[in-house]
Hints:
Elements: H1 9-18, H2 20-25, E1 28-33, E2 36-42, H3 56-75, E3 78-87, E4 95-105, E5 110-119, E6 125-137
Antiparallel strand pairs: 1-2, 2-4, 3-6, 4-5, 5-6
Amino acid sequence: MSEPGAFDLQALNAVNASAAFNRAMGFDVIAAGKGEVTIRMNWRDDLTQYSGHLHAGLIAALLDTACGFAAATLVGAVTASHFSMNCLRPAVGRYFVASGTTLRAGRRQVFARAELFAADERDDLTLVATGETVLVPTGEPRKADES
C-alpha cells in the first residue's frame, strides 16, 4: 500500500531532473509505480573505464537510483543505508535499462533490488549487473513543484 507521500512517475521525473548527477549522466525515468521503476541511459564513450566498458561507478549509480526510486513509489523520499552490487559481465550496449523492484516496504526500512540490462543493436537485453539496497524513509515532504 502506498503512503500519502509516495512518488508517481511525474514526481520521480521532477526529482530526477533536479539531480545534477542524473541529468549529467542522462538518466531517464521511463516507468514507475506500485513499487517498481524503470530507468534508461544511453551509451556514451565518455562514461567508460579503461577497457571500454561502462564504468562500475555508473553501474552502481543506475542500480542505486532504480532501487531508491522504486521504494519512493511506495513510501516517498528515502536514503540508502546499505548498497551492494554484482557485476555479471562487461556492461557494453547501445543503451542500458535499470529495473528496480521494492521487495518489502516497512516503516523504518525498505528493501529493494535492481537489475541492469544492456541493449544490443537489435534491442535484445542482456543482464549485466544486479544490486540490492536497504533504504530508510526520510519523511521529507515533496517540494511544491513535485506535487
